[in-house]
Specification:
Blueprint (H helix, E strand, L loop, with lengths): L4 E3 L14 E3 L2 E2 L11 H4 L5 E2 L3 H9 L8 E3 L10 H4 L1 H11 L4 E5 L4 H4 L5 E5 L5 H7 L6 H10 L3 E9 L7 H13 L4 E6 L4 H10 L4 H10 L2 E3 L2 E3 L2 H17 L3 E4 L32
Parallel strand pairs: 2-5, 5-6, 6-7, 7-8, 8-9, 9-12
Antiparallel strand pairs: 1-2, 3-4, 10-11
Helix pairs in contact: 2-4, 8-11
Length: 292
């Protein structure tokens, strides 16, 4: 049984299309305090905190893990919260993984990865909006969108962005999403992952308290017209599909691969992997780049 390095299995979601991979989280909680965070439903809303004896547990797991399986760090608690600049736990984990030949995909809203380039194979940076004022409300302690783009542009590796979540009447304006995609492409992004906002009771409460003018429209869209899948409320497919199809097609026009995350639309998976693991070098040292 693995301890901190675990096979990625998001609650056996029937909509997950990720290839086999490990998930690794040096921290629990997340100091970025994003309003829409789903992980707070099971870990609470609290600052990033190092896992107890994390490195010892990781070293033990690595003795049993398969180096041919990629590691995604991290899928819920960000690996680059403000605390990382002091504690260096993510860097220490990357050094352990790198020394044993594991291929690592970094997924983050942080910018500390600039310091650690060379220790991981590919990068996905989450950017929900280019509007700095809106981002400061949605993601109050995460770096600004402009600083994330600057950091993305500064690293020389295969990389992409997650436009996640797309929030109706807030971050779903197609003109603004087109601009975001152009900025991402110009910063070197090769791949884009799109996902719509999925409501859970705790994150929905935070969202309506912060944007009361949208509360009734969101309630109608998610709780009256929407559907329940697992523990989430989704917008109806008739709303989600056209929204996602337009941005996927725009990303393809810009020369990037594109996919959706846990949406159930197989025809919108226009990349060798949904999550960006295809950007990683193969165990032989080659990287995949064919589009499905």
């Amino acid at each position: 049984m693995m301890d901190v390095l675990r096979p990625f299995d998001p609650w056996k979601s029937p909509l997950c299309t990720c290839p086999p991979k490990y998930s690794l989280h040096p921290y629990t909680g997340c100091t970025h305090y994003c309003l829409y965070c789903y992980a707070t439903s099971y870990v609470g809303r609290r600052p990033s905190r190092p896992k107890k004896e994390f490195l010892r547990r990781l070293r033990r797991d690595l003795m049993r893990a398969d180096p041919s399986i990629p590691v995604d760090m991290s899928t819920s608690s960000d690996p680059y919260p403000p605390e990382e600049m002091v504690l260096g736990l993510t860097r220490a984990a990357l050094e352990e993984l790198h020394s044993r030949g594991f291929r690592v995909l970094l997924t983050t809203k942080g910018v500390g990865f600039v310091r650690d380039q060379g220790l991981f194979g590919a990068l996905m940076v989450t950017i929900t909006t280019l509007d700095g004022q809106l981002a400061s409300k949605l993601e109050p302690f995460a770096p600004s969108p402009s600083s994330r783009l600057d950091a993305l542009a500064s690293v020389d590796m295969r990389k992409g962005v997650r436009v996640d979540p797309i929030i109706p009447w807030l971050t779903d304006d197609f003109g603004q999403l087109k601009e975001l995609l152009r900025e991402a492409r110009d910063s070197g992004a090769e791949h884009v992952v799109f996902s719509t906002y999925k409501a859970k009771p705790d994150n929905f409460k935070r969202m309506v308290l912060s944007f009361p003018d949208l509360a009734e429209r969101w309630r109608r869209l998610y709780y009256e017209e929407g559907i329940r899948i697992g523990g989430y409320r989704y917008m109806p497919a008739r709303v989600r599909y056209p929204m996602l199809r337009k941005v996927v097609e725009e990303a393809l026009k810009l020369g990037m691969t594109a996919s959706t995350c846990r949406e159930g639309f197989r025809d919108l998976l226009r990349a060798p992997s949904c999550d960006g693991t295809h950007l990683l070098p193969r165990p032989s040292g080659r990287a995949t780049n064919a589009v499905l």
